[in-house]
Design brief:
Blueprint lengths: L1 H12 L2 E6 L5 H14 L4 E5 L16 H10 L1 E4 L13 H8 L4 E7 L12 E7 L9 E5 L2 E4 L5 H17 L4 E6 L7 H13 L6 E6 H8 L8 E4 L1 H14 L7 E5 L4 E5 L16 H13 L3 H16 L13 H11 L31 E11 L9 E2 L2 E8 L2 E4 L11 E7 L6 H12 L3 E11 L2 E2 L8
Parallel strand pairs: 1-2, 1-3, 3-12, 5-10, 8-9, 8-10
Antiparallel strand pairs: 4-5, 4-11, 6-7, 11-12, 13-17, 13-18, 14-15, 15-16, 15-17, 18-19
Helix pairs in contact: 2-9, 2-11, 5-6, 7-8, 9-10, 10-11
């Protein structure tokens, strides 16, 4: 008896504890089904269940209780079902909150065709690596006037370097041959331009992997016409959110699309589809997306043989025509899980690829390229609220009024274009040489005597090069 207890204790100590967050709607049903399949496959995991989402609002206003976040930090790996996010009001996304709190900077979305699922393309096999923290997902928004809301798009050099390096390390680790940067640097010349230049900088460190880039609109068109041209795509946050869902549609939809959120020490694997409250509790939900996310988690943890067993069991079931209702079948959640368990192959039947247990992409400590630059403030953009084009002094101290724009289009100087004006104007004052903080404060005081201003941006030059965009028509 003591020997058996000692053996059980040793086995338990060899297990990796995973924080499990079943989520909202169909989340608990698909999570239970996935855990059952993993246990049947012999996954060396222990489970610690925690809440997040709508059911946690009374305990935590953001839907993420402190003990749940602490559990993810403690165990360093989590499996998460879908959680609901209200549109336009209510609490922020639990997904985004987790990603930001744990600095899960890379969202990894493998997109691979599955047997038995008829789609427009038969052999899709690509990976989307999405920057997961920055961009418009900083959630930095302000209503600046009755007619205008501003959202800040924030792209940073460290964040861009980190996700680019992760994409190249993933390509090398997973045996991929090409990484494509998706951007819109022809329009967003500074923000997407920085993301692209960081990608190119990192690409030079990986001469064994082909690197290229593509505009996001063209990428979307190419994905729905010839997805086979892509291998690994790396993108800023917003574009990655959109094209990863688009790519999921190529292989059957979000119900079969896995996702992992990867940080330096912590990873959260999740189903990215909705909570489907209309079928919650009816036993009809499809657990495939969460199951494939769990397969991704197993590989992250280094359990490649178990991951291969689970994935092969799923593929066999789908090839045999066993499907849930969303995929055109009649199978319920539990029956689908039963079928996968019955189809699990023995390990000796599988050729398990040898690869590193996880992608490691720590950025080397390099000096910031901007730290050696000479930075000067050479002007100010002052955003003001006013009906019609504001009448402002042509000169204030060292500043001259160079331009006024409305929704990005120049309306002064020169003839005002025949466009729809809103009550929000960018007024650009520039100087012939560097200005001081006191000069900027004096400028704002003077402008405040004429109109109400709500936002200001300093116009900086780095080594004599302007670090700001021009207005359309300027």
């Amino acid at each position: 008896m003591q020997t058996q207890q000692a053996s059980d204790a040793h086995a338990s100590s060899c297990l990796t504890t995973v924080a499990v967050i079943p989520g909202d709607g169909i989340g608990p049903e698909i999570t239970r089904a996935v855990v059952r399949v993993l246990e049947a496959a012999g996954a060396p995991l222990a489970w610690e269940w925690h809440e997040a989402g709508l059911g946690s609002i009374e305990r935590a206003a953001n839907g993420l209780p402190a003990e749940t976040l602490a559990a993810i930090q403690r165990h360093r790996v989590a499996l998460k079902g879908p959680t609901a996010t209200p549109s336009g009001a209510g609490h922020k996304s639990v997904n985004v909150t987790i990603r930001k709190a744990l600095d899960l900077y890379a969202n990894v979305r493998p997109v691979r065709s599955l047997p038995g699922l008829k789609t427009r393309f038969d052999d899709v096999d690509l990976v989307i690596v999405r920057e997961n923290i920055e961009d418009t997902y900083g959630g930095i928004e302000h209503r600046q006037s009755p007619e205008v809301v501003q959202c800040l798009k924030v792209i940073t050099r460290p964040g861009s370097l980190a996700v680019a390096r992760y994409a190249f390390e993933l390509a090398r680790t997973w045996g991929r041959r090409r990484v494509t940067c998706v951007h819109k640097a022809n329009i967003h010349k500074l923000s997407d331009g920085l993301f692209l230049s960081c990608f190119q900088e990192v690409a030079a460190e990986y001469p064994d992997i082909k690197a290229d880039d593509i505009l996001v609109d063209n990428a979307c068109m190419q994905l729905v016409t010839q997805p086979e041209r892509f291998d690994v795509l790396v993108t800023p946050n917003l574009y990655g959110d959109i094209i990863s869902d688009l790519a999921a549609g190529l292989v059957g939809g979000l119900g079969v699309a896995p996702a992992g959120n990867i940080g330096r020490e912590v990873a959260v694997f999740e189903a990215v589809h909705g909570t489907a409250p209309d079928i919650a509790g009816l036993g009809l939900a499809n657990p495939t997306a969460l199951l494939l996310s769990a397969v991704q988690m197993l590989r992250y943890l280094g359990h490649h043989a178990c991951a291969a067993r689970v994935e092969e069991g799923l593929r066999r079931v789908l090839a045999d025509g066993v499907r849930t209702r969303d995929l055109g079948g009649t199978c319920g959640t539990e029956a689908f899980a039963d079928a996968i368990v019955a189809a699990l192959p023995v390990e000796s039947q599988l050729a398990v690829p040898q690869q590193a247990s996880r992608v490691v992409a720590q950025a080397p400590a390099t000096p910031d390229a901007a730290s050696s630059s000479v930075w000067e403030v050479r002007g100010v953009d002052v955003f003001v609220e006013h009906r019609g084009i504001p009448q402002l002094p042509a000169r204030i101290g060292p500043f001259a009024l160079a331009m006024i724009s409305n929704r990005g289009t120049k309306v002064y100087p020169g003839p005002a274009p025949d466009i729809m004006l809103v009550d929000w104007h960018r007024c650009r004052y520039v100087a012939d040489s560097a200005v001081s903080e006191d000069d900027v404060v004096m400028l704002l005081k003077q402008i405040g005597q004429h109109v109400s201003w709500m936002h200001v941006e300093k116009l900086r030059h780095a080594d004599g090069v302007a670090c700001y965009s021009k207005a359309q028509g300027e």
